[in-house]
Amino acid sequence: MNYKEILERVMNNVRAEKSLGKLATYIPELGNIDPYKLGVHLSTVNNLDVGSGDNQEKLSIQSIAKVFSLCLAYKMVGESIWKRVDVEPSGNPFNSLVQLEADNGIPRNPFINAGAIVICDILISHLERPKDAFLSFVKEISDNPELTFCQKIADSEKSIGYRNVALCNFIKSLGNIKNEPEEVLDFYFCLCSLEMSCKELAQAFLFLANGGKKVSDEKEILTKSQTKRINALMQTCGFYDESGEFAFEVGLPGKSGVGGGIVAVFPGNYSIAVWSPKLNAKGNSYKGMMFLEMFTTETEASIF
Ligand code: GLU
Predict the structure, then answer these.
(1) Start-end ranges of CATH 3.40.710.10 in the chain?
(2) Ligand 1 centre and the CA of 64: distance in Å?
(3) Mean pLDDT estimate for the chain
(4) Residue whose CB lies within 8 A of the most ligand 1 atoms, among 95, 111, 234, for a mutation test
(5) Which residue is catalytic, options 74, 240, 270, 286?
(6) What are the helix and strand counts (H, E) for the chain?
(7) Which fold is adopted by the domain 3-62+197-299?
(8) 43-88 per-position pLDDT tens digit
(9) Axis-axis angle for helices 113-126, 130-142 (nearest 10)
């Protein structure tokens, strides 16, 4: 398969399409991003690395970071993690409050905000310096010592984060947050502010395409079974209430973020990251979805 050629062809097609959608201006700093950025990077388990466009420029990874925090917490606490957060698609927007009451404070899955906030709480309970440990974990899985949080974006989100504050306090009142909400939210906003390029994202996610082992040194990050479960959750819950659509159109597990990034994983083959900041009505990158749909159509390969 000539991935480079296909990637370039799809890139040209996507570039030529109208750029619809809107920036995630609800986080004021994200409103300052150049809406016409477009980058893609693909890393394969056979050590091929190909990219195009703005693939080496940093983006705010936002909810994509929820995959990293889940992997770290799962690695640390094992199967008991599923007592605190469920594994069902929510069918609701990422910041919805409505299901929580009926579900007794157990979020539907770890990728909606409520679930990611509970995962932050678990990490805080188990780690002395959760921010440092989280960053070290992402640096380790991506073989990249250069990664940093963006304080400006974390502060910007904190300044308007009323709904996440409400979610966290509500879950606390139902007994599924053990630490102080302020500390939990500070950590949550911080990890959402992590900045990575498409190239860095594709490389960081590659172990999920490789049975849980890093490709560079075969170090096990997660077991095969844990890896299967993370990929299954990305498949069913990775795109807010558009996860079905992404499975239907693209056919790969993945995770998106409101910074306009999407990462998808083809187990046994590759990981791919796309960035285009304008979002569709469901909060997923408009051109990012389009790119991946065209890419799996052209390669004629998906998990299905
Ligand atoms: N930090 C964002 C929020 O909590 C993440 C949303 C996302 O990327 O889905 O609203």
Answers:
(1) 3-62+197-299, 65-192
(2) 9
(3) 96
(4) 95
(5) 240
(6) 12, 7
(7) Beta-lactamase (3.40.710)
(8) 999 999 999 999 999 999 999 999 999 999 999 999 999 999 999 9
(9) 100
Segment holding 256, helix H or strand E: strand 254-256
Rounded distance from Cα 136 to ligand 1 centre (Å) = 22
- The number of the ligand 1 atom at minimal distance from the alpha carbon of 192 is 1
Instruction: Answer yes or no: is pLDDT of 8 > 90.
Output: yes
- Residue 174 confidence (pLDDT): 96
CATH architecture of 65-192: 3-Layer(aba) Sandwich (3.40)
Cα 158 from Cα 150, distance rounded (Å): 12
pLDDT tens for each residue of 112-130: 999 999 999 999 999 999 9
Residue 98: other Cβ atoms inside 10 A: 10
Residue to mutate (ligand 1; options 27, 60, 63, 184; most atoms within 8 A of CB): 63
Q: Ligand 1: which atom is nearest the Cα of residue 240?
A: 9
